[in-house]
Amino acid sequence: MKFSNNKRINKLVNSLIKSGWCFKKGTKHNKLVSPSGHIKTIPGTPSDWRAAMNFVKDIERAQERKQA
Questions:
Q1: Three-class DSSP labels, 8-41
Q2: 52 in a domain, yes or no?
Q3: Above 80 in pLDDT, residue 67?
Q4: Is residue 2 part of a domain?
Q5: Nearest-CA neighbor of 56 among 68, 42, 67, 66?
Q6: What is the residue range of 27's domain?
Q7: Is position 1 within any domain?
Q8: Could you give the CA distance from residue 64 to residue 45 in angstroms, rounded to a whole number?
Q9: End-to-end CA distance of the chain
Q10: Could you tell me if residue 29 is inside a domain?
């Protein structure tokens, strides 16, 4: 399934879903829900060149909160 136009984001979302995160389809934005309940919005058509890096950092922060 294609979650984003960005290859890096798409790959990350696919791996997160395989590792236990949940995908929620929204009317405008799709979301990822972590096993601990944190919700992250998936940038579907990122126009900013930093969008993939920012999304990766958001996911890393959510995973750190889960472990702490």
A1: HHHHHHHHHHHCCCEEECCCCCCEEECCCCCEEE
A2: yes
A3: no
A4: no
A5: 42
A6: 7-67
A7: no
A8: 26
A9: 32
A10: yes
Contacts of 55 (CB under 8 A, 6+ apart): 9, 12, 40, 42, 43, 46
Q: Which residue has the tokens 């940038």?
A: 43
Which residue in 33, 41, 42, 35 sits closest to 3, CA to CA? 42
Long-range CB contacts (within 8 A, 24+) of 62-67: 62/34, 62/36, 62/38, 63/34, 65/36, 65/38, 66/34, 66/35, 66/36, 66/38
Phi, psi for 2 (deg, rounded to 5): -95, 120
> How far apart are the C-alpha atoms of 19 and 31, rounded to whole Å?
16
pLDDT tens digit sequence for 16-32: 999 999 999 999 899 99
Is a pLDDT exceeding 70 seen at residue 68? no
